[in-house]
Write a structure and sequence with these properties.
By secondary structure, the chain is of the alpha+beta class. The protein contains 28 helices and 30 strands.
């Protein structure tokens, strides 16, 4: 599953939407802190499921559904009780094997239902026939419904299930809701007349119902985990393509199917690639990609055979979509298709090893995109995801990739930068170290050996050792079993007497952004290095604080972490850094980006001077280095947030305008037809940065294009329209606010509606932001947009939204899903930059604030304190550098 953090702008880049902070900063969904074991404690091991027969009849008007069917299971030792997971369900009569009736008892705190029988059940196969009722929600969990505007100006309605990943399937049916308790699902679903039903497997037969409507009966699924079950009911169109034995389809709101053509091509391409790469063909007869109107707090969910997406991650609308959107659709689709093997065919045994699902899917998505679209330079974009992981992993609130999971909060917090981004980076590091062929051999063995079952990190390690070298085991254990970011320090570099090699003195320590994260740890770090201009790469494992000499072919400046494939920061002594900087333009793009990223990260952490980064950044140009310029723009935006309320912000913004407005002028507002894709992404980011920092010329040009588009559509071609509308929202006054609000209300499709709402949430002016917040709270909006809008407003005005959420929580809570109810305050507060908000958050948690899960709040507080440290220590350095440039 891909989750999303705050939508910083509709004009987002593929990396920020997918690999960077927005992809990395997954919605930190968590429930209030609970006692150990609540909700996630493993079920008794005296039974295991074999097959579910589920017949579902939804009643969308009354927001209820009924179910009937059977739970088939095996008893492994005699027991008079059968315990399953269930929450919010009313179970009717339950009958065992056609005879004994059960007494049903509920344990709400542990989300369980227990069937007790008069006599013990003997070892062997059994079946409980039962009926139940549950609620159809408005939030994206369990069985839910969504309203959406139609082209005819009416309101349409669809039903979807979202049973991933923690404690949600149990709100749909009584079942064994653990990833390691797999079973077959045999499901049928009733639908209104004119609607279709899509589920994991193809339709076997359609049964007409009295009074209209139909019941769709689906083929049984393979043995799978409960959270992968899916169906949807609605007015759909489908486009399809055959890939080998698999019918690949895209299913969208009626009338929009052609906007899924890019997703269909990506899905077909990825499926064919993975069939070959994994050495095991996709086992289901069809693979649908199902889009839901609107957008929510995450991107997609990998349900086996029927992947669920919010529209922005599957739909390409020529009138709105940007180059970044196209790349995002491709990589999200590839991520979800990769899950059909890593996650679905082979599933992690428990939530401790979630990275085996998410890290691998993220890595495979990038690998696939790079294979088919090398012009996108995806691995350069992935560098931003590593920075997001570093920022969490270098604080005291981090955790190992493999962590013990006991509670619901711990499990939901595992969907974070460490699992996705660090996990992906560690996989890339392993592949680079052992070689592509050996790594692929290990992965194929892993899939083969654990198909239709579950696996652990130890299982994967065994296959890696078998396929490569026993030394890889210690490296992987170090990076997955302990938290933190290694720091490789370059103590000196010298050319040897023969002028054919260089000797670099290295030492391993730890990079940290707060005191606890600087406590010593030791990793066996696989270091690859090369001399600038040379092709040959030297390799050495560096461990501990004792200096190590590394010999590198060639005489000259040496770039550590050549190719930027490994997970560590590098700090150079002044002479080594200056030598690299002097030959910056000769370095490979990945090495240039890595040097910039380390310089910025070390400066933020107080381990290097900001002047080093600022001087180095002057070497980047827009046309020659669009992704490097994109990284600079992202860093500038983060620093501008840090400057909020400080006297030096005006001067810093003047610097931003002087640095980045010429870049925009250089590439222009509209590029040629054959323009490189990444130039288009840079354009979007530059317009966004300049508009958010109040550049008068950019705001005026955006307004001119926005006003003139009705008579001259060429002013806002599809790739530019989002950036223009978001910029207009950033500079909105009262009249513009009213116009954008009116356009959102009259929108006849969900993408248009979302564009105008997000533009309102992008307002620079606090008074306009307050109006946007009031509108979000009072206007009837799609439920799945509520939290993204709150978070978008909090991007610029965190204290405003924090005050609102804490004061009006009782009013807001019904609009939140289960996890958001416990984390909404942390989600909002994490956008803050000063200690005052961190202290208020701590006081709120201490006072028992109902909307603050303790661990989520502590993460948010540590991030605020980190930014506060940059304000106190880094900002004065930047102020001094800017003054020096002026002089």
């Amino acid at each position: 599953m891909i989750d999303r953090g705050p939508n910083r702008a509709m004009a987002k880049t593929a990396k920020s939407a997918l690999f960077g902070a927005a992809f990395a900063a997954l919605l930190v969904l968590s429930s209030p802190a609970r006692a150990a074991g609540d909700g996630l404690e493993r079920l008794p091991d005296d039974t295991r499921p074999e097959r579910y027969t589920l017949s579902i009849t939804p009643d969308a008007a009354w927001e209820r559904f009924s179910g009937r069917g059977a739970l088939e299971f095996t008893v492994t030792r005699p027991t008079a009780t059968v315990t399953v997971n269930a929450v919010g369900l009313k179970i009717g009569e339950a009958v065992l094997d056609g005879g004994q009736s059960a007494v049903v008892a509920y344990d709400t705190a542990r989300q369980r239902a227990t069937f007790t029988f008069p006599t013990p059940l003997p070892v062997g196969a059994h079946k409980i026939s039962l009926s139940w009722e549950g609620a159809i929600t408005r939030n994206v969990e369990g069985l839910f419904k969504v309203d959406y505007p139609t082209a005819e100006g009416r309101t349409g309605q669809m039903l979807f299930t979202h049973l991933c990943c923690i404690a949600t399937a149990r709100s749909f049916a009584p079942l064994w809701d653990q990833p390691d308790l797999k079973a077959v699902f045999d499901i049928d679903v009733a639908s209104p007349a004119g609607d279709a039903v899509v589920a994991n497997m193809p339709v076997e037969r359609r049964e007409d119902l009295p009074g209209g409507g139909a019941r769709f009966h689906f083929a049984p699924t393979p043995k799978m985990s409960s959270y992968l079950l899916f169906f949807s009911v609605g007015a759909f169109d489908r486009i399809a393509r055959q890939v080998g034995d698999t019918d690949v389809g895209v299913v969208l709101q009626r009338g929009k199917a052609e906007q899924g053509r890019d997703a269909l091509n990506a899905s077909a391409q990825a499926l064919d690639y993975f069939n070959d790469y994994f050495g095991v063909s996709y086992p289901l007869p069809k693979l649908d990609n199902v889009g839901m109107p609107g957008a929510g707090g995450f991107g997609a969910m990998e349900n086996w055979g029927a992947i669920f997406y919010f529209e922005p991650y599957i739909l390409v609308d020529p009138a709105i979509s940007t180059q970044a959107d196209r790349q995002t659709v491709y990589v999200v689709v590839a991520h979800e298709v990769a899950h059909q093997w890593f996650g679905n065919l082979v599933t992690m045994k428990w939530w401790d090893d979630l990275w085996l699902n998410e890290g691998f899917a993220s890595w495979m998505a990038a690998k696939t995109a790079d294979h088919f679209h090398p012009e996108w330079q995806i691995w350069l974009q992935v560098a931003d995801s590593r920075e997001a992981a570093f920022r969490l992993d270098a604080r005291s609130t981090t955790h190992p990739i493999v962590r013990e999971v006991h509670t619901l909060e711990e499990a939901t917090l595992a969907f974070d930068e460490i699992t996705y981004e660090k996990g992906s980076q560690i996989i890339r590091m392993i592949e680079a170290w052992v070689g592509e062929a050996a790594f692929r051999t290990a992965i194929q063995a892993h899939v083969r050996n654990h198909a239709y079952g579950n696996a652990t990190t130890a299982d994967l390690l065994g296959e890696l050792v078998q396929a490569s070298d026993p030394s890889i085991k210690a490296i992987v254990q170090d990076f997955t079993g302990q938290e933190g970011v290694p720091l490789i320090e370059v103590l000196s570099t010298r050319c040897d007497a023969d002028r054919r090699t260089s000797t670099v003195m290295l030492r391993q320590s730890r990079f940290g952004l707060d005191a606890p994260s600087r406590s010593p740890l030791s990793w066996r770090v696989p270091v690859m290095a090369r001399t600038v201009g040379a092709d040959t790469i030297a390799r050495q494992v560096v461990e501990g604080p004792r200096p190590v000499a590394m010999t590198v072919p060639g005489c000259g400046p040496v770039k550590i972490n050549a190719g930027e494939t490994a997970y560590f920061r590098t700090r150079y002594d002044d002479a080594s850094f200056d030598a690299l900087a002097s030959r910056f333009d000769e370095m490979a793009p990945a090495d240039r980006l890595g040097l910039l990223a380390d310089s910025f990260g070390l400066a933020e952490g107080g381990d290097a001077a900001f002047a080093r980064y600022m001087d180095l950044s002057k070497r980047v140009s827009a046309k020659s280095d669009p992704l490097l310029a994109l990284a600079l723009a992202g860093n500038a935006g983060e620093l501008d947030r840090t400057y909020a309320g400080l006297p030096g912000q005006a001067a810093f913004r003047t610097f931003i305008h002087a640095r980045f407005a010429p870049m925009l002028a250089d590439i222009g507002w509209v590029g040629p037809a054959d323009e490189a894709a990444n130039i288009g992404m840079l354009r979007e980011a530059l317009i966004d940065l300049l508009a958010r920092t109040g550049d008068a010329a950019t705001l005026a040009e955006a307004t001119r294009r926005f006003r003139g588009a009705a008579s001259d559509p060429a002013l806002t071609p599809g790739g530019l329209r989002q950036a223009v509308v978001m910029a207009v929202g950033a500079g909105a006054d009262q009249a513009t606010f009213a116009e954008l609000a009116d356009r959102s209300a009259k929108a006849t499709n969900s993408a248009e509606q979302r564009l105008y709402l997000m533009a309102l949430a992008n307002a620079n002016d606090p008074a306009i932001a307050r109006r946007a917040l009031d509108m979000t709270l009072t206007r009837a909006l799609p439920a799945q947009l509520f939290v993204p809008l709150l978070r978008a407003i909090a991007e610029r005005h965190p204290a405003l939204v924090y005050d609102c959420v804490t004061a009006r929580y009782a009013e807001i809570a019904p609009k939140l899903d289960t996890y958001e109810k416990g984390a909404i305050v942390a989600m909002i507060a994490e956008r803050g930059v000063d200690r005052a908000l961190a202290d208020r958050l701590a006081a709120y948690v201490s006072a028992g604030g109902e909307a603050a899960g303790k661990e989520a709040a502590e993460r948010a507080r540590s991030l605020i304190l980190f930014r506060d440290g940059v304000r106190r220590n880094g900002v004065p350095q930047i102020d001094a550098w800017i003054r020096k440039q002026g002089a």
